[in-house]
Amino acid sequence: MRDQTTPADPTEQFEQPDEEGTIPHPGLTSDMDTEPDHGEDSYVGSGRLEGKRAVITGGDSGIGRAVAIAFAREGADVLISYLPEEEEDGQVTAGHIRDAGRTAVTVPGDIRREEDCVALVETALRELGGIDILVNNAAYQMAQEDGILGVTTEQFDRVMKTNLYAMFWITKAALPHMTAGASIINTSSIQGYQPSPQLIDYATTKAGIITFTQALAQQVAEQGIRVNTVAPGPIWTPLIPATMPEGKVERFGEDTPTGRTGQPAELAPAFVFFASQESSYVTGERLGVTGGKLMP
Q: For a pLDDT cut of 70, what percent of the chain falls above it?
């Protein structure tokens, strides 16, 4: 059986998704014509996170689900947060965590509210007994063909609150309870370096996440806490058909040097690396997973 270490031609490892049209936001995995590969049948753990306690925002689907599966199979108990309307996906992810023999805690809520972010951390402390790994992964985007002219104040506010404010609130609440050896991993994006005009607000937040990561890493390094960011390129998740314009979903990711969109399963090892002791001397860094698209 193929696992994440089996040699393969990266240009042919996954087929380009066959998707017709868009799906309603926020987008459920079951709504997609071609469901992403989260490593359900391929990720094999080796105990690198044994006994760790992880919090993953946006853990119901896409990258968050792949990371949750990998963390659980590496030995971590996992709390995932997501929007209430994503409960179906959240329970699927929780099932994978439990199948790995680990504790799964689900916390539906709206992280655009500070009180929900604080409650999320409190739940992790109560149900898991602490936080060793924090993954700020939840994000919102909505492409606008008119660029800035199509972005309403309501959309701008939602993108900022989901992508930046929530990361700030959750990290601030969790940090006093994290000790030496803990790891914070923020999901940024190639958009933080190569912004698309249609995603001007989203790209702005991703650049902010990169700077936030670098600044926080310097602050907490002497406490033995590391802070890093994974910067994905085009990755196939429900967010794509739920937020991209009609006609662009079908060709999503084909402009990469590898010629295809990436799968969430291909992101998980990067998060495991940053969460594990293998990256003990790595902090304030960015790891791009972009299919060959270059970043400065």
A: 100
Residue type, 248: K
Residue 167, φ and ψ in degrees, nearest 5: -60, -45
Spell 25-63 as b/e; 16+ CB within 10 A means b.
ebbbbebbeeebbbbeebbebeebbeebbbbbbbbbbbb
pLDDT at 182: 98
Catalytic (active site) residue 202: yes
| Residue 236 contacts residue 264 (beta carbons within 8 Å) | yes
Tokens (6 digits) for 79: 């709390």
Q: What does pTM read for this prediction?
A: 0.97
Distance CA 167, CA 14 (A): 31
SS3 content of the chain, % helix, strand, coil (to 5): 40, 15, 45
Amino acid at 278: E
* 104-108 and 77-82 strand pairing: parallel
Catalytic residue among 82, 140, 193, 202: 202
Beta strands in 183-275 (DSSP E): 183-187, 226-232
Q: Is the pLDDT of residue 263 over 70?
A: yes
181 touches 131 (CB < 8 A): no
Say which residue the tokens 């149900």 belong to: 127
Tokens of 210: 């990169």
Which residue, 67, 7, 51, 60, is CA-closest to 29?
60
